Amino acid sequence: MSELPEYILDRVFDAPREMVWRAWTDPDLLSRWYGPGVETIIHKFILKPGGSWLNEMKWGDKSDRSKMVFQEIVRPEKLVWHHSSTDANWNTITNPMMADWPRVLLTTVNFEDVGEKTNVRLSQVPIDATDAEIACFAATMAGMDKGWGGGYKVMDELFAELQANAA
After folding, report:
1. Strand-pair partners of 113
2. Hey, where are the domains in the chain?
């Protein structure tokens, strides 16, 4: 395949860019909205190029671990990381829930001022993926809004709370 599928989600938040940036880069806030409806545990979060974010989402006796390795950080404008599923020792593995899911995704999050609000553009593209992984990603993209949208809804509540506490 020559043209890689790219998942893009734009969302304007009713919050200033610094606050939105903080929600993506402060592990205490990030764990509140990332993985809505499950317990999110951030085992490690080193916000620098080459630094890692080790994330675990738990529900019942099940667990899903992922590792994000930061590639680029431009405060408060841009985050770029490689995102992969991992085993319990944080080694990259095939996604245990979808065998043909890409082993690594390039994730880019841009933060743009829109008056007093902030537009967040999230983009994900498979890296070094097989044709089967690319096809799986392309077929799944339409449903990805639901997962990110659930987290973004929690983020809206978080921003309302932070703004009320700041007033």
Report:
1. 118
2. 7-166
Task: Compute the distance between CA of residue 129 and CA of residue 104 in angstroms, rounded to an integer.
Answer: 8
Amino acid identity of 57? M
Q: How far is CA 26 from the centre of its chain?
A: 13
Dihedrals φ, ψ of 136, to 5°? -65, -45
- C-alpha 23/C-alpha 3 separation (Å) is 32
- Residues 101-156: tens digit of each pLDDT: 999 999 999 999 999 999 999 999 999 999 999 999 999 998 999 999 999 999 99
Strand partners of residue 118: 13, 113
- The answer to whether 71 touches 82, Cβ cutoff 8 Å, is yes
Phi, psi (degrees; rounded to nearest 5) at 96? -65, -15
Distance between CA 108 and CA 161 in Å, rounded? 26
For 97, the 3-state DSSP assignment is coil
Name the class of domain 7-166.
alpha beta
Spatial distance between the Cα atoms of 38 and 119, rounded to a whole number of angstroms: 26
- 35 contact partners, CB below 8 Å, separation of at least 6: 55, 57, 151
Report pTM: 0.95
